[in-house]
Amino acid sequence: RREMTKQEYAIVRSTIHEAASHFSIPLNPTAAASQP
Question: Which domain holds residue 15?
């Protein structure tokens, strides 16, 4: 298994963040605190 490139990692991060935002899943304490 090869290492992901920084671009691939950024895409995965943004994809996860986008999916999480649809389900209101906080990814970290800061995001949880900013949720209404």
Answer: 1-31
- Is residue 24 a contact partner of residue 35, using CB atoms and an 8 Å limit? yes
Q: Is residue 36 domain-resident?
A: no
pTM above 0.85, yes or no: no
| Cβ(27)–Cβ(16) below 8 Å | yes
Count of other CB atoms within 10 angstroms of residue 21: 13
- Write out pLDDT tens, residues 4-24: 899 999 999 999 888 877 776
| 20 Cβ neighbours under 8 A, 6+ residues apart | 26, 27
